[in-house]
Amino acid sequence: MKFQLHTDIKKPEQLFELPSSVFLIGSCFTENIGQKLQAAKFSVCENPHGILFNPASIVKAFQDYFEKKEYSSNDLFQLNEVWHSWNHHSRFSDIAAENAVQKINTSISHATNFLKTANQVVITLGSAWVYQLVDDSLGVAGTMVANNHKAPAALFRKRLLQLDEVIAMFDQVLHRLFQLNKDCQVVFTVSPVRHLREGLVDNNRSKAVLLQAVHHLADKFNRVYYFPAYEIVVDELRDYRFYAEDLVHPNYQATQYVWEKLKLNCMSASTNELIAEIDEIKLAFQHRSFHPTTQQHQNFLKKYLDKTMELQAAFPTLHFENEIAYFKAALAESF
Q1: Which of 100, 230, 293, 330 has the smallest set of CB atoms within 10 Å of its CB?
Q2: What is the DSSP string of 75-122?
Q3: Distance between CA atoms of residues 208 and 70, nearest Å
Q4: Do 70 and 105 touch, CB atoms closer than 8 A?
């Protein structure tokens, strides 16, 4: 008997390989996968503008990177005693405008440099609904905002981006990205997170626009690949036990399942073997013994110190400094 449907996942032309660098931008689902890539010792630049949901805000972020934009206090607005940017997540906000500007510009500079050599650029789209400022009281009327920063709802007009708009936006971005970095591969995903603020019907309208757009782009550009994270969660794991208590965000089991699918279909056997070794070291690093002075525990620490140092020597660009420092310190304390 068949109890589960399985998504047909085509392998990308360019696999995720260790050691390599991955740039990720988009919705909160981006951060779930970004954390797993980082734990697997990929070099990661994740959401340099903070979490972004709609295509217009993601495209604006790329424009900032391409143009090496430097923000000033004139690009910010003050609300509830805090300075914000309409193009950024609230984690860049600050009670001092100069601090917010510094955080923003430092992140843009890092993102620009990272993009030049990134092997993979992962773009996760969350919603095709955008919110635009209706007047000039806190910015330029018509601006599509990345985050409402808890501003009054009356400041915004809501509309659904059309398919041709989304395609045109990313068409320009992809051309400029491939000029900046001719060797990178772009991986589009659509977030399986439901945007209940819009309601289930309008959420599905939004996802339909995004899915059509990314498939159009993947068909048009040779180095654009679609990874079906949306279908994996919505169709393969079609059960609310794979969601958090809000019934909206995929839980640990769901994101782990997507991660396993990504490894199986988008990474080589050698990279998967290396990740398995890294996972083993990570578990040893997290282990805390109730009896740290025993010979058994000293042997355990020595074994994983040697194993970690061997991997570090074999892959100098991977970073095991924390693990090596811990094993050495724990060994010293055991005597």
Answers
A1: 293
A2: G-EEETTEEE-TTS-GGG-BSSHHHHHHHHHHHHHHHHHHHHH-SEEE
A3: 35
A4: yes
Between CA 19 and CA 176, with CA 69 as vertex, the angle to 5 degrees is 60
pLDDT band at 300 (very low <50, low <70, confident <90, very high): very high
Q: By C-alpha distance, which of 250, 329, 240 is closest to 36? A: 250
Q: CA 283, CA 278: separation in Å to the nearest integer? A: 9
User: H/E element holding 32?
Assistant: helix 28-39
The whole-number pLDDT of residue 187 equals 97
Task: Give the DSSP letter of residue 304.
Answer: H
CB atoms under 10 Å from CB of 325, counted, come to: 10
**Kind of pairing, strands 77-79 and 82-84?**
antiparallel
**pTM score of the predicted model:** 0.94
Whole-angstrom distance between the N-terminal and C-terminal Cα of the chain? Answer: 58
Question: Mean pLDDT of all residues in the chain?
Answer: 94
Please give the domain boundaries of the chain with CATH numbers for all domains: 21-267 (3.40.50.1110), 276-334 (no CATH)
pLDDT tens digits, 1-26: 777 878 889 999 999 999 999 999 99
Region of 39 on the Ramachandran plot (φ > 0 left; ψ -120 to 50 alpha; else beta)? alpha
Do the beta carbons of residue 71 and residue 88 sit within 8 Å?
A: no
Answer for the pair 219, 178: CB distance below 8 angstroms, yes or no.
no
Q: Looking at residue 250, what DSSP letter applies?
A: B
Tell me the Cα Rg of the chain. Answer: 22
Biggest CA-to-CA distance, the chain: 71
What stretch of H or E contains 312?
Answer: helix 295-314
Between the alpha carbon of residue 116 and those of residues 67, 101, 182, 248, 254, the distances in Å are: 13, 23, 9, 35, 32
Distance CA 184, CA 203 (A): 31
Q: Output the pLDDT for position 334.
A: 61
Strand partners, 23: 45, 121
Contact 13, 237 (CB under 8 A): no
Which token pair is 229?
């994270």
Q: What's the one-letter identity of residue 145?
A: V
